[in-house]
Amino acid sequence: MHVSIITKRGDDGQTDLMFGKRLSKNANRIEAYGTVDELNAVLGVVRHSGISQSAIDLIDDVQKRLVGLMGELATLEEDLPKYDEKGYARITAADVSWIETISKQYEHDCDIRFKGWARPGQKGLAGSAHLDWARAVCRRAERRIATLRIDGDLSNEHSAIFINRLSDLLWILARFEELESGQNN
């Protein structure tokens, strides 16, 4: 049996969460996971923008974690035990540690020194410009997730920390790609 993606359930301005709950499409929770979804889509563009294979592999690992983050954000706090019982992925302290380790490795490998603000696209490289775009979307996702944390609607502090570290990693990765191409001088 074929199930259509067109359900018409969102025509009233609400959308489904995990486990049958619904919220207004402009609710903070929807804004948060929608922005993470947008980030994931931008990272899909990044993967095909001429970046190195090591960066593509890293982006793939990040995207896997973002899918879990979106699921967690699409679940009300009261339904998280059901979410966990189903075995769905969540962001953990191990994910935060992973991203910090990767960031430090890239930072060390390219010996980045701050020389003022980055100007996305200045070096003429699509890959680094797209990584900066992803970083900007990631920062917006971070602000949306921070709102949930401040409002008491997200108990998993690792999610907020992970997305903060991810924006740092995307900045570093953009500079790394410039360096790898010989454009970071």
Characterise the protein shown here:
With 185 residues, the chain is mostly helical. It is built from 6 helices and 2 strands; from the N terminus they run ββαααααα. The chain is 62% helix and 3% strand. A two-stranded antiparallel ribbon has the order 1-2.
> Using DSSP, what is the number of strands?
2
Q: Into which percentage range does the β-strand content fall?
A: under 5%
Cross-sheet strand order for the largest sheet: 1-2
Helix and strand run: EEHHHHHH
Q: Roughly what is the average pLDDT, rounded to an integer?
A: 89
How do you describe this structure in short?
The protein is built from six helices and two strands; from the N terminus they run E-E-H-H-H-H-H-H. It has helices at residues 28-47, 53-73, 80-85, 93-110, 126-150, 157-180; strands spanning 14-16, 22-24.
